[in-house]
Amino acid sequence: MRRTQYFKWGLTAFLTVCAVLIFYDTFYQAGTLQRFVSRLASILAPVLYGFAIAYLLTPIMSWLEKTIRALWRRATKKELKPRSGALRLVSILLTEAAVIFLLYLLMSVLIPQVADSVTTLINNAESYYRKVYRWAQELLNSNNEIAVWLAGQITERYSDGMDFLTNQVLPWAQKAIGPLTNGIWSGIRGAVGFAFDLIVGIIVSIYLMGMKEKSLARCCKAVYAALPEEKADAVMRGTRKVNSIFSGFVRGKLLDSLIIGILCFICCSLLKMPYTPLVSVVVGVTNVIPFFGPFLGAVPSAFLILLVSPKQCLVFVIFIVILQQFDGNILGPKILGDATGISSFWVIVAILVGGGFGGVLGMFIGVPVFACAQELLKYLMDKRLRKRNMPTEAYAYVGRAKDDPAETTEETTTDNDKGTV
Prior knowledge:
Blueprint: H1 2-28, H2 32-43, H3 45-76, H4 85-123, H5 125-141, H6 145-210, H7 212-226, H8 229-270, H9 276-286, H10 293-308, H11 310-336, H12 344-387, H13 405-420
C-alpha cells in the first residue's frame, strides 16, 4: 500500500517538474519544445493531410455505401454483408474519384479564366495607375478642404518618404537580389514537397476510411482502459459533441462557400462584370471566414471593378449585399443550422483571437474551438450545480441574491426609531 502511495507521489512530482521545465523553456528560453513540435508537424504532414481528407470525405463515403447497398438490394433481392470489404473499397474509390474529377473540372475551367483575368489586370496596370493619378490630381485642383489637407500631408511626408527609400528600401533591395534565385528554387522545392505530401495524404486517407470502424473501436477501448467507466463515458460524450460541432461547422462552411462562389460567378457573368473568375474566387474563398469574410472579399473586388467602371462597381456592391443577405439568412442557416451554438458577439471574439494567433486558418478554426470550450465550461458548471441541487438555467439566478438579514434588521430598527421620534 505504501509503495503504491510513494509511486503516486513520485509520479506527481516528476510530472510537475516536467511541466515547469516545459513552461519555462517555452516562454522564457529558446523554445525547444516549439521547434520540436514544428519539426514533428512537418514530418507528419502527409498523415495530417490524410486525416483531414478522410474527415471531410467520410460522409460522402457513408452515403455511397448506403446508396450502393440499397441499389444492390433492389436489383438482387439480397442483402450485402454488414461489413463488406468490397463495398467499402468501391465506396472509397468512387468518393476519391468523384472529388478528384470535380476538382479537375473546376480547375480546368477556373484556372485559365483566372490566369486571363490576372494577365488583363497586369496589362492594364499602367492605365489604372494613370486613372488613379488623374483622380488625385482633380481632387488636388478642386481647392476644397480635403484637397488642401491632402496636399499638405503629401508635402510633409515627401522628404520622409525619400529618406526611407534611399536609406532603407534600396539597401534592402540590393541585399535581396542575391538570395532571389535561391528563394525561387526554395519555392519550387516547397511546391514539389507539398504535392508529394498531398499524394501521400490521399493514400493515407484511403487507409483511414477503410479501417474507420476498427480504429474507432480501438480508440474507445483505449479510453475505457485508461479511465474509470464514469470518466470514460464523459470523455466519449465530449468527443461526440466536439465531432458534431467541428463536422457541422467545417463541412458546412466549406459547402456554403463553394455555393456562394458559384453563385457569384454565375451572376457576375450575367451582369458582365470585369474579372468575373478572379472576383468569384476571392469572394468564395474569403467567405470561409465567418462574419468578416464577406467584407474581406468584397472590398478588393469592388476596388478592382471600380478601376474599370464606377457604375459596374456600384452594381457589384449592391449584388454582394444581396448575396450576403441570402447567405446569412437563408443558405447559411439551412446548411450550418446551429452548428456552434454561440452568439454573434462570441463569434467575433473567437475570430479576432484565432486570427491573432493563427492567421487566416485561426480565424476559420477559432469559432468551432471556442464553441467546444464553451460546451466544456457549461458542462463543468452544470455538473457542479447539480451536486449542490441547484438549477442549471442561467435565468434562475437573476435577482437570486437577497439582502443581508443584518442590514435589513438595521434598516427596520432605524425606521422604527424615526417613527418613535
